[in-house]
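Can anyone check this?
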Amino acid sequence: MATFENPGTMRVPKIKNNNAAAQQITAEQLMREVPAYNTDEYRAPSNLHIMDQDELKDYKFRMRRDLEEKLRMQRHHMGTWIKYGEWEAAIGEFQRARSVFERAMEVDYQHVTLWLKYAEMEMRNKNVNHARNIYDRACKHLPRVD
């Protein structure tokens, strides 16, 4: 582990043994061994298949509950606010997405990425007037930010 002696310099640990290994391994050998290390323990995340309206309501309820819980625990974490707002927009709940972004503005209106993501969400969904209003508000609240 490297330690800092001065703020501008870093002490790099020395390599103790520069000798070649007794048995050399080629890249081809490594590639042949890869399938042996694959296990069934890891599975790629499956896509959620929703069959009816009850399952959809349940899915939305669980996601909102989980995201609200995360926000309750970490109110000032803007990444969670942005994720929540973009998720609401992705499922077509634009009023809820706007509500989430506006609540995030109450927490930290100086967060530039939040303004940009909010406006991009509106533009992506062809709400140009909403996006224009967001940009106007951002220019009013953050006049010196590019």
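Reply from J.R.: I decoded it. Residues 53-73 form the longest helix (21 residues).
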